[in-house]
Amino acid sequence: MSTTITFYDIKSNRGAWSPNAWKIRLALNLKGIPYKTHWLSFTEIEPFMKKLGANPTGKKPAPDDAEDLYTCPVIAISSPDGSSPSKLIEESDAIAEYLDAAYPDTPKLFPTGTRALQAAFGQFFLSEVMMPTSAVLVPGLVAILDEVNAKYVEDTRMRWYGAPVSTWAPLGSEKRAGVWKAAEEAWGKLAAVYAKSDGVWISGAQPVYADFIVVALLACAREVVQDSEFAAILKWHGGVWGKLWEASSPYLAERQ
Ligand SMILES: N[C@@H](CCC(=O)N[C@@H](CS)C(=O)NCC(=O)O)C(=O)O
């Protein structure tokens, strides 16, 4: 297909980190689709997306829930000569569906018959695994942003979730140890799901979108938690996440 994909991702001083954007980066890398990353900081997303004509992907959490929320990832598809207007696709799931439809000769993220099951998996992952893990990820995220964007994350998360990010899981604290214990238990539920598979990937020999939801959170953790903490995750539950991480390395390599 003779089009150019621009992939909007969120910058940090360690490069790619956003779990939602990583899902799509992994998908593009699996499919071998060329793309160009356009990096945006948190505070650039809303004004930039409005100007681009992108749709919001939801509402901000309360008390700002009357306001639209603009997020990454977004992709823009344009013809190489720029003669036709860009098509914009917002929201990681919608982008993944688009990539399967637009590049039918590439590995499928949603093999036939798996779309609904993968949607159920996504909901399970978000509430049972991602939520309990985020208490340790968000504080680490603040540390890899510039001053303005660190303040944006601290201020918005304080407003939306009611406690300063710096108190969620301070390094070396008992609280952090407790958060990690809860996270390990949460990932244990996921390990029980993966144990039903006969391969490293959830559906066997090939990765599907559900795997990339998981790997994307590991890729985020890689950038925002301590090295020793990340190494511990890879050993949890008989090393299932270590094996998944290793199998994902071809799709994690391109991160520009
Ligand atoms: N449901 C959306 C969620 C995207 C999302 O929440 N992205 C975060 C980064 S991981 C974001 O852009 N947040 C903007 C902000 O917090 O202002 C998707 O899957 O694309």
From TrEMBL:
<feature type="domain" description="GST N-terminal">
    <location>
        <begin position="8"/>
        <end position="107"/>
    </location>
</feature>
<dbReference type="Pfam" id="PF22041">
    <property type="entry name" value="GST_C_7"/>
</dbReference>
<dbReference type="InterPro" id="IPR036249">
    <property type="entry name" value="Thioredoxin-like_sf"/>
</dbReference>
<dbReference type="InterPro" id="IPR054416">
    <property type="entry name" value="GST_UstS-like_C"/>
</dbReference>
<dbReference type="InterPro" id="IPR004045">
    <property type="entry name" value="Glutathione_S-Trfase_N"/>
</dbReference>
<dbReference type="Pfam" id="PF13409">
    <property type="entry name" value="GST_N_2"/>
</dbReference>
<protein>
    <recommendedName>
        <fullName>GST N-terminal domain-containing protein</fullName>
    </recommendedName>
</protein>
